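To close the section, here is one more complete example, presented without commentary so you can practise reading it yourself. The ligand is S-adenosylmethionine.
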Amino acid sequence: MQSKELPSPGTLYIVATPIGNLRDITLRALDILSAVDVMAAEDTRTTANLLRHYSINKKMMALHRHNENATVDKVASLLSRGQSVALVTDAGTPGISDPGGILVKLIREQGYKVVPVPGPSAAVCALSAAGITAPHFLFYGFLPASGGPRRRELEALKSQPYTIIFYEAPHRILECLTDLVEVLGDQRRITIARELTKLFETIHSCELRDASAWLQADPNRQKGEFVLLVSGAVAPNPAELPEQAQHILKLLLRDLPLKHAVTLSAEISGESKNTLYSQALLLQREQNQQK
Ligand code: SAM
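Output:
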């Protein structure tokens, strides 16, 4: 077995901590947290609870979103004197929808060693138990808090073929689901992972059209912390176009520019513009090859 690790002087450790269950902490994280000279914590009271649980008594400084820049000099000064520092946030991995990125960037730029001590992160935890077979995913984190910007952001994500991972707060979960349906349509799969590793952990998968009703069926389901995993856009399959729609498209493509032909075909046939567009590109390619 690997032996207990002692922190190296002048090194910043980025330490992942539990996202609920306090026992989800690595032996290595405990080694480092016990032995570093100073801890930089997002909320010193939250971290104090974790440290108390493991009987660790440590000097702490606050490092949160609003003082991250200002804290860099303090951390750099400690490192320059050969001290070791551990950064932790309230839950999970620092820098993942949490403070840490600025500190790490500037400390590395100053030539100090930064060492990650990996552990829990809600996104990966949810993904591991969602049963998603698609090979790729896109971690998005928090969507904007208000409707307009949130829907605009979803529009920009709409055509991504990857499973998208969102973080969401309980007071916005229902409006977020409404916007997901409005922008992405109601047919995609969603996995709602709430209160992971905690007493009321729930992992529920359904189609987007059924998600709001499921949440509203029991007010308790709207409580706690959420990760949402939404399946990616499915590439349109031109082979599924009815023959008549294909015929209309072919006729219009003879005399009209591609975009115009696609728009008119969609209006006449009622078929999806995306699918018609894919078919139009195929036809155009075939024609070019015949020339
Ligand atoms: N750094 C953390 C990580 O590595 O996952 C994320 C911190 S972010 C400020 C907090 C958000 O993560 C919550 O609002 C929620 O969306 C998600 N989250 C954190 N803990 C969770 C849990 N136990 N169950 C579900 N989601 C959780």
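Once you have examined the tokens, check your reading against these statements. The radius of gyration is 25 Å. The mean pLDDT is 95.
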